[in-house]
Amino acid sequence: MTIQAGIGQQAAAAFGTLYAEVQQFYAHQMQLLDLGESQRWAETFTEDATFDVPTLPEPVRGRPGLVAATSRTAAQLAEAGQRHRHFIGMFDVSERPDGTVDVRSYAIVYASVIGGDSQVHRVCVCEDVLVRVEGALQVATRRVTRDDLA
Amino acid sequence: MTIQAGIGQQAAAAFGTLYAEVQQFYAHQMQLLDLGESQRWAETFTEDATFDVPTLPEPVRGRPGLVAATSRTAAQLAEAGQRHRHFIGMFDVSERPDGTVDVRSYAIVYASVIGGDSQVHRVCVCEDVLVRVEGALQVATRRVTRDDLA
Amino acid sequence: MTIQAGIGQQAAAAFGTLYAEVQQFYAHQMQLLDLGESQRWAETFTEDATFDVPTLPEPVRGRPGLVAATSRTAAQLAEAGQRHRHFIGMFDVSERPDGTVDVRSYAIVYASVIGGDSQVHRVCVCEDVLVRVEGALQVATRRVTRDDLA
């Protein structure tokens, strides 16, 4: 490990700390979404976050819109007797000098019919900008693309 | 990184260390399961661990029961010419003051027919309590739910 | 955390740093592959790396062969109107005394038809030997097996 000695080793350790924090952030955030905890989920975004996903006709801005969109989806799934799980990973993380964090990741959405089968529903790429608000990470902008769309 | 200075930074670094340890623990544990290494897999649980999964008629307690259950599954898969892989991730990790670690994660089980196709078999949520035994993590209790079951 | 005090705690912290580095390495490498960035992808391997995967008739050695193989695959996918994503995880990581890193992981390949469905394409086990070149990790040898093949 001599190559990484001194400042290189400190930077590597700091990156490791950040990387774990990012993973924990996403795991918790996506679990909140899948639990239907729309309000708590929305609070992992900044107050004025932009959220651009293919399932919405246009980008949403701000938490009330986030809550509305995910509450609607949760209600539709419950009515259809289905469960969705968002499995996110493959985090490509880079930190800017000002502490803003760019994360490009893959998210697989699995759909299960209660009493039926489970299958892959969507394969997505998620590009986020994370910022710190009172020390904690929040999503400032999210842009999701789906592999099955042109 | 000024926000995280001092004690906050130390706590973040300690969490990063724990988070990596948890990930390594699960990767190794699930690989042992998929390799059919039932005995070594069972040793990643405490002596008196409880294991509550939908595939078993009732919760198992203790390593001999764990070995029996997974050996049976391994034999059935071999006979059917199939392979299963347990892909676990999405770790939501929190450590209690006494060092016990709560982990809620997602586990996707993939099934492949040798000479055939691969597909999603099960989508599961895994809730574990991990404890330290001689410094190493072990599962004290595991409760798994399946998305396709009510 | 008293059990991990002293040298144990330092080793755990060093492992955490390495584990994050390994995860970041694979996330970035696989994203380059899926983006069709064959040249930059090949540069994440050593100059004389060996690459042994079931899709190739025989193992490839060296970057020009890697670029050729992946460029061919990228062209075929584009022509077929499909996208592949390599979702790798489940890293079982161990470092040798000389700094070489052994990594056994699972890689799921998802295939999406543009304008159609997404599904699991392949379930693979990836066994790599990583080395450091000027401080950065590179793959020296990769051996991939597919669950659907005998």
UniProtKB/TrEMBL annotation, chains A, B, C:
It holds the Pfam family SnoaL_4. Residues 19-143 form the SnoaL-like domain. This is Hydroxylacyl-CoA dehydrogenase.
